[in-house]
Design goal:
The chain is α/β, with parallel strands linked by helices and about 190 residues long. The chain has two domains: about 5-110, Ribonuclease H-like superfamily/Ribonuclease H (Nucleotidyltransferase, domain 5), CATH 3.30.420.10; about 125-180. Helices cover about 40% and strands about 20% of the residues. The chain contains five helices and five strands. The chain has a five-stranded mixed beta sheet. β4, α2 (about 70-75) and β5 form a beta-alpha-beta unit. The protein starts with a strand and ends in a 7-residue tail after the last helix. The relative contact order is 0.14.
């Protein structure tokens, strides 16, 4: 029982497709199947695999599901790598993708040592990244709304000719709803 198994996972919101490659490197990676994307199902899978191998090396592609699986597996004592999607070697003619093929490819490439890991941020770094992204999204939404409002006013011949940027108080109007009322369609 000195064997090592390389386990490739194609992770989605509700499911994880799993493929397994043995250490010897002779056989192709084989598909295990699909499990739910929750820690109970992952724990059951890990308990099954521990009985068949001395060491398990997990790998999955970085994506929108985050790093919770990595944190769970490393906390449970398993090796886990999150691979950079842009650095995964791909054959030039292969365009057909599905979950089983992706999981098999990840297991095979991890066994061969051809994958590049991404930096796994700790929880504080990840929280700061999320906060920064949320702020950038809010600023972008505000900018788009302002552009749409300016275009709307321009279509209705409300133009500002001052030197600085246009603001409602520069236009001499305290509240735009007082000067412009939208009539009902009927």
């Amino acid at each position: 029982m000195n064997s090592v198994k390389f386990i490739g996972m194609d992770v989605h919101k509700n499911s994880i497709t799993i493929a397994i490659a043995d250490q010897d490197g002779r056989g192709p990676a084989r598909s295990y199947g699909t499990i739910n994307n929750d820690f109970d199902a992952l724990n059951r899978f890990c308990r099954k695999m521990v009985s068949t191998a001395s060491r398990l090396n997990f790998v999955y592609e970085a994506g929108p599901c985050g790093y919770n699986i990595h944190r769970y597996l490393t906390k449970s004592g398993f090796d886990c790598m999150v691979a950079a999607p842009s650095m995964i070697p791909k054959k030039s003619g292969v365009r057909i993708k599905n979950d089983k093929r992706d999981a098999k490819m990840l297991a095979r490439l991890h066994r061969a040592g051809e994958l590049t890991a991404v930096y796994i941020p700790d929880r504080q770094d990840e929280a700061m990244r999320d906060l920064t992204r949320a702020r950038e999204d809010a600023v972008s939404a505000c900018r788009k709304s302002k552009q749409q409002l300016k275009a709307f006013l321009l279509r209705h011949a409300i133009v500002y000719n001052g030197k600085s940027r246009w603001r409602w108080r520069d236009h001499g109007t305290e509240n735009p709803r007082k000067t412009y009322r939208i009539r009902p369609l009927a």
